[in-house]
Amino acid sequence: MSTTASQDTTQPGLAGVAARIRAGKATGWGVFHPGSWGMATGGLMLIVAAFLPWVYVTLTQQITGESFALRGTDGPGVATLALGFLAFAGAFVPRRRLAIGHAAVPGVLVAIIVLLQAWNIVAGSIQTAWGSFLPGMGVVLAGGGAVVLIKAAWTMWRHWKEAPRTR
Q1: Sequence spans of domains, the chain
Q2: pLDDT at 96
Q3: Taking the alpha carbons of 75, 81, 84, 89 in that order, is the dihedral positive or negative?
Q4: Which of 17, 33, 35 is nearest to 25 (CA)?
Q5: What b-and-e string marks burial along 99-135, b requiring 16 or more CB atoms within 10 Å of the CB?
Q6: How many whole angstroms separate alpha carbon 105 and alpha carbon 87?
Q7: In sequence order, which residues have a C-beta less than 8 Å from that of residue 4 and are 6 or more positions away?
Q8: How far apart are CA 115 and CA 137, in angstroms?
Q9: What is this structure's pTM?
Q10: pLDDT digits (tens, 9 = 90+) for 67-92
Q11: Contacts of 71 (CB under 8 A, 6+ apart)
């Protein structure tokens, strides 16, 4: 009897799970794929950004003594929250096209939402006193999450090889 184990046998227990995770990360056909970490990070960034302040209105500072904060859930953060969950779920989808879609669609849509919000902040500041509307941490974090998701989609598109089709 030989004391060495065959290379094609799977290990039982947690060692087998760790081996499958490593194999999936390397090939893209396990539980995780090349964009999993970026998609999980970007999705969590979008989820957290939805609950943070998106716009600070400093016009109220002279009246009440503090600036008014518009939270993400008061407006476009609700869509950002839903898209964040979609992106986070895509981190665990082992299909190439579906995973790319789960990264690209939320990334592009949130990038458009953030650009529109930035335009509204600038337009509101121009119409009133300059600096009366300021971006909050939520809109900045949502923009960063969109960039991370678009980068993950691009990485998967370029580096994740398609599996040969079988009948």
Answers
A1: 34-159
A2: 82
A3: negative
A4: 33
A5: bbebbbbbbebbbebbeebeeebeeeeeeeeeebbeb
A6: 9
A7: none
A8: 15
A9: 0.76
A10: 788 888 888 889 999 999 999 998 88
A11: 51, 52, 53, 54, 77, 138
| The pairing of beta strand 53-57 with beta strand 68-71 | antiparallel
Q: Are strands 133-135 and 53-57 parallel, antiparallel or unpaired?
A: antiparallel
In the three-class reduction of DSSP (H, G, I as helix; E, B as strand; rest coil), residue 132 is classed as: coil
State the Cα–Cα distance between residues 39 and 103, nearest whole angstrom: 6
Q: 67, 54 in Cβ contact below 8 A?
A: no
Give the SS3 label for residue 20: helix
Higher pLDDT, 14 or 54: 54
Sheet order of strands, 53-57 included: 68-71, 53-57, 133-135
C-beta separation of 115 from 46 below 8 A:
no
The residue-averaged pLDDT of 26-48 equals 81
Give residue 90's identity as a one-letter amino acid code: G
Q: Which of 60, 86, 81 lies closest to 71 in space, CA to CA? A: 81
